[in-house]
């Protein structure tokens, strides 16, 4: 009778209210989880840039020990500059020329803070900023 028909109708699928409820729950979960995941990725990039700057600094020091000169650009660390004696590179991998945000590391020799300065400009690619946009510098 009547109970049979109700049962059969329920079997057919979810009601609109049930579907909306599920969508609301998924949206809430996404709202809490996604920003945290995005933030974690950027923090990892900041750490990667910081450790890469440390490796580049060591490479520049090795270049100096071999040639008696500080490289005028990071490219000289990868490709031998003409007319330089004692070059025994490459001193670093080509992949170290760009930061985790795919922008070139900023290299200045002589530097304002030392014999040379190396920095990455962070997520926004501009000087200054804080959080994930903060500059990562060899002199900090």
Give an overview in words.
- With 140 residues, this protein is mostly helical.
- The protein has helices spanning 2-11, 16-67, 75-78, and strands at 106-108, 117-120, 136-137.
- The chain has a 3-stranded antiparallel β-sheet with strand order 1-2-3, with helices on one face.
- A hairpin with an 8-residue loop joins β1 (106-108) and β2.
- The radius of gyration is 27 Å and the shape is elongated.
Strand-helix topology:
Blueprint: H1 2-11, H2 16-67, H3 75-78, E1 106-108, E2 117-120, E3 136-137
Antiparallel strand pairs: 1-2, 2-3
Helix vs. strand class: mainly alpha
| Oligomeric state of the chains in view | single chain
Rg for CA atoms: 27 Å
Point out poorly predicted stretches. none
Largest sheet: 3 strands, antiparallel
In whole angstroms, the N-to-C terminal distance is: 80 Å
Q: Which percent band covers the strand fraction? A: 5-15%
Jot down its keywords.
140 residues; mainly alpha; 3-stranded antiparallel beta sheet; 3 helices; elongated
Structure, briefly:
By secondary structure, this protein is mainly alpha-helical. Helices cover 47% and strands 6% of the residues.
């Amino acid at each position: 009778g009547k109970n049979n028909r109700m049962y059969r109708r329920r079997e057919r699928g979810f009601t609109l209210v049930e579907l909306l409820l599920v969508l609301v729950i998924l949206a809430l979960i996404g709202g809490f989880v996604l920003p945290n995941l995005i933030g974690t990725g950027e923090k990892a990039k900041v750490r990667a840039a910081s450790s890469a700057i440390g490796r580049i600094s060591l490479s520049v020091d090795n270049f100096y020990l071999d040639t008696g000169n500080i490289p005028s650009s990071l490219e000289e660390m990868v490709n031998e500059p003409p007319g330089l004696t004692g070059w025994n590179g490459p001193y670093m991998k080509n992949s170290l020329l760009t930061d985790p945000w795919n922008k070139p590391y900023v290299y200045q020799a002589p530097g304002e803070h030392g014999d040379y300065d190396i920095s990455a400009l962070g997520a926004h690619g501009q000087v200054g900023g804080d959080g994930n946009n903060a500059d990562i510098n060899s002199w900090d």
